[in-house]
Backbone:
């Protein structure tokens, strides 16, 4: 009878552990689906794996191209010793160690007793007695591994199978992050290509059509002077020259809108000051930027200020627009604020949506705060260098 009760208790305990583990997997899947940063997912995975698989420590490592590995996350007490610090690159371990074996075979590896493993003294000194490692494959390629260590003795035979549930989730998280990074890079290339086309159009207009119009205006005026005594003909020629001058002015304004030459030649500071001078609404421009910034960053910031000044003039009924531009900690920060009627909705304005897409394609962020009757504030942050993985 007592033996039956012990068996029932073991079954009940196993069922509870299974239910708990199956509950943790949806929680981890939710982090991935929500798009949480991979680092947060790695920490959560190692913590859950420790709860359900390990009795001492769980670590997640990524294989690097130079033969080293990097510890990305670790859960459990500080039994790993000084050779295991999150974020550090670890040198190759013993040829028969877990890290080397998984890298070489692409499959799981197990050490049931570190006393019998050559070169295992650091692990024994850290208190570990056994360990199991499972590979993480992303898009069919070996990416890293999860290792579980024990201070008590050999880990259960089903440890590898139970770890597979966690390695599969990590593979999904990494694949999603890589996909987002590739999409971001693709969008950035599209923005750069678009800017180059706009720059070429502006240059062609300046060097081609505008110069030809100027030459034609001078020629017409010379003809008008020669026909000064011919009454109506002189007037008609003067009128044609004046009309051509208006066309030239319109073309110059269009050219500035496509890609301002002053931005290419002088940089962000003089280009924004030129915007302020042309703004129908008084623009208080505080630009704390010295020297040149990366061209995509300059163009992105210029587009934000230009679009918001135009929107303020068309819709806000504002009396003043305040623009602050500064760099700190490797980030360009742009703030545009007006005292108008507010109520701007990014979802209804293609200009704001286009701005947001442009800034996000460069790895930045753009937010719009526009309560009714309280003006509109746009905040933009752009990294000065490409964000690393």
Residues:
């Amino acid at each position: 009878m007592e033996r039956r009760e012990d068996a029932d208790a073991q079954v009940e305990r196993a069922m509870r552990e299974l239910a708990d583990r199956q509950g943790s997997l949806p929680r981890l899947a939710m982090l991935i689906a929500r798009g949480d940063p991979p680092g947060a997912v790695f920490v959560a995975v190692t913590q859950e794996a420790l709860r359900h698989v390990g009795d001492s420590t769980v670590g997640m490592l990524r294989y690097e191209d130079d033969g080293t590995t990097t510890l990305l996350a670790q859960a459990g007490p500080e039994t790993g010793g000084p050779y295991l610090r999150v974020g550090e690159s670890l040198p190759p371990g013993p040829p028969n160690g877990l890290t080397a074996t998984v890298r070489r075979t692409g499959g799981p590896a197990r050490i049931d007793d570190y006393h019998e493993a050559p070169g295992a003294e650091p692990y024994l000194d850290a208190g570990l007695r056994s360990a199991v490692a499972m590979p993480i494959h992303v898009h069919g390629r070996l990416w890293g591994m999860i290792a579980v260590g024990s201070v008590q003795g050999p880990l259960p035979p089903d440890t590898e199978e139970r770890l597979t549930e966690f390695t599969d989730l990590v593979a999904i998280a990494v694949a999603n992050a890589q996909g987002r990074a590739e999409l971001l890079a693709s969008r950035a290339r599209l923005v750069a290509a678009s800017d180059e086309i706009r720059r070429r159009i502006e240059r062609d207009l300046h060097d081609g059509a505008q110069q030809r119009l100027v030459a034609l205006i001078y020629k017409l005026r010379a003809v008008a002077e020669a026909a000064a005594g011919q009454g109506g003909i002189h007037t008609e020629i003067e009128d044609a020259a004046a009309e051509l001058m208006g066309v030239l002015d319109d073309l110059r304004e269009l050219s500035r809108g496509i890609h301002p030459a002053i931005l290419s030649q002088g940089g962000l500071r003089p280009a924004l000051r030129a915007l302020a001078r042309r703004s129908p609404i008084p623009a208080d421009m505080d630009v704390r930027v010295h020297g040149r910034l990366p061209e995509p960053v300059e163009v992105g910031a210029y587009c934000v200020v230009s679009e918001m000044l135009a929107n303020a003039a068309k819709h806000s009924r504002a009396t003043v627009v305040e623009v602050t531009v500064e760099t700190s900690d490797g980030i360009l920060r742009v703030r545009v604020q007006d005292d108008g009627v507010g109520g701007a909705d990014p979802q209804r304005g293609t200009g704001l949506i286009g701005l947001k897409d442009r800034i996000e394609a460069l790895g930045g962020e753009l937010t719009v705060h526009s309560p009714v009757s309280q003006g509109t504030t746009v905040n933009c942050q752009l990294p000065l260098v490409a964000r690393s993985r």
Remarks:
- Confidence is low (pLDDT under 50) at residues 7-19.
- Residues 98 and 109 are 6 Å apart (CA to CA).
- The chain has ten helices and eleven strands.
- The two ends are 59 Å apart (CA to CA).
